[in-house]
Amino acid sequence: MGIDTGKRYVRVRNLRDDGFVEFDFAMGEPELFVELVLRPEAFDEFCAANKVRFLSPEGEGEGDRENDWAWRLADARETRFR
């Protein structure tokens, strides 16, 4: 059984004060995604070109992220490294 790359998913993470949209993009499996940032116009064009299905915001009807594997690259903004 292979991954159907025709299925594409977007989950909006944040609408930033500077106007950018932070979102996750996945092909085939929503659990395997990349984190992207685009201006709203580019985001709309990206979603239309990829014919994405929008996923609900994290935490709505899904498992919690209280485990070690739930870390995201965007979380590094809030972390101090020594």
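Second entry:
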Amino acid sequence: MDSGAPNGDGDENDAAGGEAETPVACVRVPRAEGEATRRELAEAELIAESYEIAGEDGHLYIPVTDPAAVPEGLELATHAVGERERQTTPADLLGSEPSYERIGDVVLIDEDDPERARAIARAVVESDLPVETVLNKASKVKGEKRVREWELLAGEGTETVHREYGCEYLLDLAAVYFSPRLATERHRVTEQIREGERVFDMFAGVGPFVIPAAKRGATAVGCDVNGRAIEYLRENARRNGVADRVTAIEGDVREAADDYGDWADRIVMNLPHSADEFLETAIALAGDDCVIHYYDIQHEKDPFGPGERAIRAAAGGEYEVTVETRHTVRSYAPHEENVCLDVRLER
């Protein structure tokens, strides 16, 4: 991801490294800001690696995979760019497209067939992907700490560094829960945070809501029952230069809330299978004007109703409740949706 940016010398009408042939969605940025912007897009895994970066009229055109996920403030444009020389993929070596996820320099697969799992691991390591570790899911996410077991197929360990929208997260996949699939959703919430807000993440993990909130100038508190996750949260606050604005609390949020009554301007409740059990605590944390980001998993026939009714019941007559956004995050299972309610509470 760190290759491909032109240095600004030479003919500005030339594409970076090849002929401009295919019109694609790009971020248009002045050359002087090109490298910083390219790094931001690379960290968010938004660069379309199959195309070259083009230069023209004093600007760079950086091809992107998902225009809707491009951070606010960056200019989108359609521009003709050249195709990058093709790299060897795991599919080339296998003869079929394997299903996998990447977190940092680790590839995750979910294969029941041991022979197929080993074949995918070999193909990943021998391909041009910049990874050396391959893990196969050996259990479901389980327990209060939301962790799963892994089978190590290649590499030496389960710790990695994941980069997302300009933030860096050190984590151990065998010790904490983390989903790269929620990057766009985390960014959607983060973009709503304003400088000076007080943000409380009730189930914080290694900090993917807490860290970007602090980087936007908020005072952020993260709580989690997983002690290893809290250790990583503190380390990630240091890595991202926001340790002075982050407080990490190990333990049950229902106990930690005693010290933060009427405190929060914004609350994140990303525990979709059982967030309703913590609504009384969320109400206790909420200040006079507070937004709650409430995550839920419900049947597709009524994905938002149960959560909205639970929030209104918990708020009672203490708050006026306004649902500002009903947002579908992703399909979770057949006929089940992972959704988020952005709800404003006004005392």
